[in-house]
User: What shape does this take?
Amino acid sequence: MGKQPQQTTLSYALLGLVHEEPRTGYDIRKIFQTTPMCHYSSSPGAIYPALKRLEKQGLITGEVNQTHALRPKRVFGLTAAGTESLLGWLALEISADDAIWRLDELMLRFAFHSFLGSDRATREFLRALARETDAYSKVLENEMANLPESTPIHGRLALESGVESYRVHSQWARRALLHFEVSSS
Amino acid sequence: MGKQPQQTTLSYALLGLVHEEPRTGYDIRKIFQTTPMCHYSSSPGAIYPALKRLEKQGLITGEVNQTHALRPKRVFGLTAAGTESLLGWLALEISADDAIWRLDELMLRFAFHSFLGSDRATREFLRALARETDAYSKVLENEMANLPESTPIHGRLALESGVESYRVHSQWARRALLHFEVSSS
DNA sequence: AAAAACATGTAAGCTGTTACATGATTGG
DNA sequence: CCAATCATGTAACAGCTTACATGTTTTT
Assistant: This one.
């Protein structure tokens, strides 16, 4: 319940991955290099310090795999506090700012929503996401309509791309929601 | 021609804005706060140091407006080297990596393409953007098809959102291209 | 006279980048 | 035995965030 120090997106990605199954830093690097769950830095200079931070905060623990005595590899898993932090993040309410500036993080959160037992939070998540992205696409649409005469076509088109981007996300969220609706009847 | 030290996206945004017309740091902050050309930090701790860096590199110069002797405001404009750097950046070829990881920067570049006199570079830009985003959407599509059976629906949907995102950008680029085609006949 | 907006900056701290460093294990 | 891959880390540096600091001009 106490307010936890807020993590970077990378940190949450790490928490989610070691929650799926215990992993080493190297495992995680490979995932970031070779799977679509990428868009995160696979550089050792990012990952190992991040893992160390999480360990110091008590969210993960590394067990040394002793099959080879020298050059041990450290397999990380979530602690109770780590699980709590991860699940708390997943269930967080979506703010308008999240939808506008941190869509990437929201999509990562959604991808990990399978960790929540029930679909209720996911439905709420998708409804909020659809609402906020739709609202912002309309804000941008409005700003496009009020652009000064002199605005060159390039600027207009770039803005149009932004409008579309948020609109498409909103539509995606509504479509995704159908997968979690209770098929009542 | 010499390789210039590469700038951050924020730096290029600043170069573009002061190229439109001479501006102060405060002007720029307001633009980032109030117009859709935002998504950049309007914090003084980001902007003033960035302006100072550009000045030290000789890309912009600040003229003190002496209408009020105390608390002077500094109006920045591009130097010849600054113009060269900005135009060089605009005309840069698009790599696949740019389209995958730095779409935001590409859209900023496009928005400033009005500074290039001719439409030829813009056409090339849009063609390359359409090609690369389309190619990557297909890469993701393929990865979605090859996802392990066990992958939860959340992961699939998140990936689908990525596929769509790139596809929509590609379609946008193709549509935008129509505005710059020579209406030959 | 006070509040809001104008206007510019600095300092500490955090995170990520790039580059370097080290050594083990496995496949050809 | 050599190369590639496995595996973990550190160090210097750059840039951004947050918070602070300061003083002016305009509006109410």
